[in-house]
Amino acid sequence: MSTTWQLPATANGWVTDGGLETDLIFHRGIDLPDFASFPLLDDAEGRAVLEDYYRAYAGVAARAGAGLLLETPTWRANADWGARLGYDPEALRRINREAVAHLRALAHELGDRVVTTLVVGAMGPRGDGYRAGEHDAEHYADYHRPQLEAFAEEGADLATAYTLSTVAEAVGVVRAAQDVDLPVAVSFTVETDGRLPDGTALGEAVERLDELTAAAAAHLLVNCAHPDHVAAGVDVAAPWTGRIAGLRVNSSRLSHAELDEAEQLDEGDLADLRETTRRLASDLPAVRIVGGCCGTDARHVAAMWDGWTPRPV
């Protein structure tokens, strides 16, 4: 399964961040309409909050001797969600470019603390990440191309599309990234049974994506599920497991439906998260990116990295 771009090798893998939006809402008291954090880039106070957030993960990477992925706060910065927040296409292009530039400057500042840093343009699904979309790959390619184009124009090292619930959207993202000549990674989300929200088995989704795109995604991840939920969909003997390079997991064991309805943050248990993540990583031979998702913060990511390094690939 060859790709045109590969994540650079580091001795100790790559740290990425946790649940940005839930951290901002529940720990910092910041209102995020539509769960969107990118509007914080539009004022100095918001940018300072984001910088403080990312510096905590730089600390985790420094202690682990690992590389750092600085991922833009642009999960919601696409056309439908942007319009709800008053951002037209030109404003979205501006904010996506500014997000990359902002983290590029922070990466420069952190240069003497972290082994190496990449700036990643983070994307989300067109709709709700917990519900399967109904469009075809061509539609999704057209939809996501402007955001990818903005990342490419500003010189992002990589883009990653998170919380995807269908193969069609993943294929569309990969094809759009090829159109703008930007390396891209794809992250699926799964339900408690290890299947995508549309019922597709995780392994089938990985294999179909690679078949339909000639394995053009740089690598794959799974996000926004507890490690044991992901593990339910993993066949340790299957070749496709070698395509999963990253985990951004929830500490909570709640289902997506339960998380949607929860009025309080379920932060889970650090010891459980550390143990279950390591067990899952041992079944996925290529995992070298580890971070968190909903409900997690720098404490959770630090716990997952404490005393752990990925196996050589």
Word description of this protein:
- This protein has a single domain (14-305), classed as Alpha-Beta Barrel (TIM Barrel), CATH 3.20.20.330.
- Helices cover 42% and strands 13% of the residues.
- The chain is built from 11 helices and 8 strands.
- An 8-stranded parallel barrel has the order 1-2-3-4-5-6-7-8, surrounded by 6 helices.
- It is globular and about 45 Å long.
- It starts with 13 loop residues before the first strand and ends in an 8-residue tail after the last helix.
- This is Homocysteine S-methyltransferase.
- Keywords: Metal-binding, Methyltransferase, Transferase, Zinc.
- InterPro entries: HCY_dom, HCY_dom_sf.
Briefly, what is this?
The chain has 313 residues and is of the alpha/beta class. It contains eleven helices and eight strands. The chain has helices spanning 20-27, 44-64, 79-84, 89-109, 137-154, 167-179, 202-213, 227-231, 256-261, 270-283, 298-305; strands at residues 14-15, 67-71, 117-123, 158-164, 184-188, 220-223, 244-249, 289-292.
